[in-house]
Design a protein that fits this description.
The chain has 191 residues and is an alpha+beta fold. It has five helices and ten strands; from the N terminus they run αββββαβαβαββββα. It starts with a helix and ends with a helix.
Length: 191
């Protein structure tokens, strides 16, 4: 009887581990829907949520005058782009400016070119008011964006957000200490 209990307990512990190890488990679905948008990209072209339909994408929030977190986040996004390319994994990258008054399309283009020349799948967006981006970030990404009236800095999330083909945010990651392999694994699981 003890032997049967031991086997039953062992199977109870091993089967879930084996099933998890063998599956390509989808990332945790947060079920946060990205609101419809049409903004302007670094090439002065309209870019909308409809352009991302059917594609997996990673988003963040940055601004070009940032001297603290944005340069490393942008470098990390560039590194993610290269790792995706090296592994043959398709995903779009979207960076929303949180300082649209300063970050005109040409400014965004010059800024990102310090980190990469490959903008085939990276879209840096502007063309909205400060209030619009603050509302959009809060309502779609549950991320705080705030430009204090007494400073040129903008307070914003330092997060990378993974969005599925339907425009639903399914997971998020630290944009400063990036878990590249986990993001890539999660992107593959969505495809």
């Amino acid at each position: 009887m003890k032997f049967i209990k031991l086997i039953a307990c062992t199977l109870f512990l091993i089967i879930p581990i084996a099933l998890t190890a063998c599956s390509d488990e989808k990332p945790n679905k947060l079920n946060w829907k990205v609101r419809e948008f049409t903004y302007t990209d670094q090439n002065e072209k309209p870019f909308s949520l409809a352009d991302l339909k059917g594609k997996v994408w990673v988003a963040d929030f940055i601004f070009t005058n940032c001297k603290t977190v944005c340069p490393p986040m942008t470098q990390n996004m560039s590194e993610l782009q290269q790792k995706l390319k090296d592994q043959g994994v398709k995903a779009e990258l979207v960076s929303f400016s949180v300082d649209p008054e300063t970050d005109k399309p040409q400014v965004l283009k010059e800024y990102v070119q310090k980190f990469t020349q490959d903008l085939t799948n990276w879209h840096l967006l502007t063309g909205y008011s400060q209030k619009e981006i603050e509302d959009f970030a809060t309502k779609s990404f549950k991320a705080s964006v705030k430009k204090p009236s007494v400073s040129s800095d903008v307070i914003h999330a330092t997060t990378f957000f993974l969005v599925d083909q339907e425009g639903t945010i399914v997971s998020y990651y630290d944009g400063l200490n990036v878990p590249y392999e986990q993001i890539i694994k999660d992107i593959k699981a969505l495809q």
